[in-house]
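sry for the spam today, last one i promise. struct tokens for design, 260 residues
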């Protein structure tokens, strides 16, 4: 897994993220910085996400019905498949949660964990908090800061050799199994950084197409290939709002050419 962790650190460096803080808007990072289009929709059938390659183009499908923290981990996992040069793969919820048995899934999970919450950033956060005892409240605070789930935070703290005592790990596992952390998460929800995935979930804006695809739809409308009604569907606006938008930008569909 060392190679996957190293790849995550390289990815963060090349994408200008550094290693000392969280990724505040993962959707922007993946689409705009890594140039990997993301489609967010309801996948169902236990599918959390998918990484697909078609020739020179790669893209991601993401289940937008999952909890946002889980979506973020899945998206980082799919970015891992992309960065590590894996082929197309459909990821079930269980395969992402465990990653056991398939080296590609284990690598993608290791990449995702380091990409979202780098080991050095975890140590930096703990030092900034004066190295507090790892009670459940502290782990929830850390999870909110890095916008990961509380179980994922426990895993990362263990991997970073911060959560070392077996007794502390057992105590946290018991609390998580009981769902005690969920009430603390709700109390601290306002502390979680806003990002594109959270906005989509809050607005129920599914399916969400990649920006590149939405821009292509606008070009198709300007070329007279699709109707204003179809454009409205693609950009998730009503027809009246869409018409006002294209009028404001002076976009007029090209007239149909005569058949000769």
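last one done:
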């Amino acid at each position: 897994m060392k190679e996957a962790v190293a790849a995550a650190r390289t990815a963060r460096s090349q994408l200008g993220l550094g290693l000392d803080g969280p990724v505040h808007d993962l959707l922007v990072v993946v689409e705009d910085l890594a140039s990997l289009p993301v489609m967010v929709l309801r996948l169902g059938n236990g599918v959390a996400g998918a990484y697909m390659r078609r020739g020179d183009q790669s893209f991601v499908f993401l289940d937008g019905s999952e909890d946002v923290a889980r979506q973020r981990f899945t998206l980082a996992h799919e970015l891992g498949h992309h960065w590590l040069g894996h082929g197309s793969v459909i990821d079930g919820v269980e395969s992402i949660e465990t990653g056991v048995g398939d080296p590609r899934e284990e690598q993608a999970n290791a990449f995702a964990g380091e990409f979202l919450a780098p080991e050095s950033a975890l140590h930096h956060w703990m030092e900034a908090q004066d190295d507090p005892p790892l009670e459940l409240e502290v782990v929830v605070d850390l999870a909110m800061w890095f916008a990961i789930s509380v179980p994922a935070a426990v895993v990362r703290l263990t991997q970073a050799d911060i959560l070392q005592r077996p007794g502390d790990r057992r105590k946290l596992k018991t609390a998580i199994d009981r769902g005690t952390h969920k009430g603390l998460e709700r109390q601290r929800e306002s502390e979680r950084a806003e990002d594109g995935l959270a906005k989509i979930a809050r607005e129920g804006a599914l399916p969400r197409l990649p920006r590149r695809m939405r821009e292509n739809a606008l070009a198709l409308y300007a070329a007279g290939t699709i109707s204003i009604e179809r454009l409205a569907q693609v950009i998730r606006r009503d027809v009246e709002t869409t018409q006002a938008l294209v009028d404001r930008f002076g976009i007029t569909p090209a007239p149909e050419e005569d058949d000769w």
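The chain has three domains: 2-116, 119-193, 211-248. ok im logging off now
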